[in-house]
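Example (one chain per record):
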Amino acid sequence: MQGRSATKVVVASTVMLSFISFWRAAAIVLNDLGSSAYYVPGIAEQAVGKAAPWFILAIMLFSYAVRAVYIESCSMFVRGGVYRVVHEAMGGTLAKFSVSALMFDYVLTGPISGVSAGLYFAGLINEFGEYVHRPELQVSANYFAAGFAILITAYFWRKNIIGIPESSEKALRIMQITTSMVVILIVWCILTIARMGHNPVPWPTPGNLHLSDDALGWLKATVAPSITAIAILIGLGHSLLAMSGEESMAQVYREMAAPKLKNLERAGFI
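Predicted structure:
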């Protein structure tokens, strides 16, 4: 009688996974959320005029309520991302719509963020070339931004397929560098205001709202924009991208170290 060979059984569970701290989770969310800061102010100002910062501020305050909903839903339902959370709460149909909207958001905001960063970088190179009187240090802003966006997208795609522990480390480093730049920018702005003064942001009153034709869309040549409530909704709609990135909290919740809910609340607060 021949001896039976032992069958090896591997049990995979979340105990065997590498978890990330709330600092890394916050870095992922902040990178997603903060990338919108490079282009949302320009979009909002072009749409509604100089009163755009008030609309962005309103959206950011509203985002705290959305963040609270994300934290509550992640704690109540089975972990597994946006699809699982919405599926458990509202059913499969709305879950499919939610994932479709999320994919559209990523497809839309990812290239915009990359191109915006490329345009900033191209402007820095061109201005530096003018400053040192080196005409050869000039690049085509549009082509440079497009190429830069492609490289950045490919880089982060590669990092993301490696896994969250690896990509979160890179996100944390990027966030540390960005934070240093923000501190320098704030100090520079304070010194500039102290030396040269500032122009106050106009209140979002009907007289200060200058809606562009692109912002009006099919409401152009109608009486609707003259209604204050509708004009405010138009301004808020063009500032809504300022809260793009909140959905990342549901994605990183599963990978967070214990205590998960407490760390998620900390990440949301940061």
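Caption: The chain has a mean pLDDT of 76.
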